[in-house]
Amino acid sequence: MASLERILLKIGLLLIFVSIISFAFRKLGLQLGKLPGDIKISKDGFEFWFPLTTSLLISGAITGIYWLFKLLEKLFK
């Protein structure tokens, strides 16, 4: 049962972190998917969209969260 509690705690911390990041982006006036560096090509009857900068930010955030969880796991063992 203790492992379930740890998983729920990690999910709660993840949701808090995501909401803080989302709030910060809204306050800065940035929308994920429409950041500078995101690629969008529109032509007649064709549209290509690749959120490069957004993908890099999400990847960095996930890596940071994973690193933080591993650090907290070491501290509370």
Topology (SSEs and partners):
Elements: H1 2-28, E1 39-43, E2 46-50, H2 52-75
Antiparallel strand pairs: 1-2
Number of domains: 1
Radius of gyration: 17 Å
Rough shape?
A: elongated
* SSE string, helices as H and strands as E: HEEH
Helical content stands at: 55-70%
What strand order characterises the main sheet?
1-2
How many angstroms separate the termini? 16 Å
Overall SS class:
alpha+beta
Determine the strand fraction and express it as a percent band.
5-15%
* Secondary structure tally, helices: 2
Low-confidence segments, given as residue ranges, are: none
Whole-number mean pLDDT: 83
Q: How many distinct beta strands?
A: 2
| Oligomer category | single chain
Profile the largest sheet.
2 strands, antiparallel
Question: What is this structure, in a nutshell?
Answer:
The chain has 77 residues and is of the alpha+beta class.
Could you explain how this protein is built, in words?
This protein is of the alpha+beta class and 77 residues long. It has one domain (2-75). The protein has two helices and two strands. The chain has helices at 2-28, 52-75, and strands at residues 39-43, 46-50. Strands 1-2 form a two-stranded antiparallel sheet. A hairpin with a 2-residue loop joins strand 1 (39-43) and strand 2. The model has no long low-confidence stretch (mean pLDDT 83).
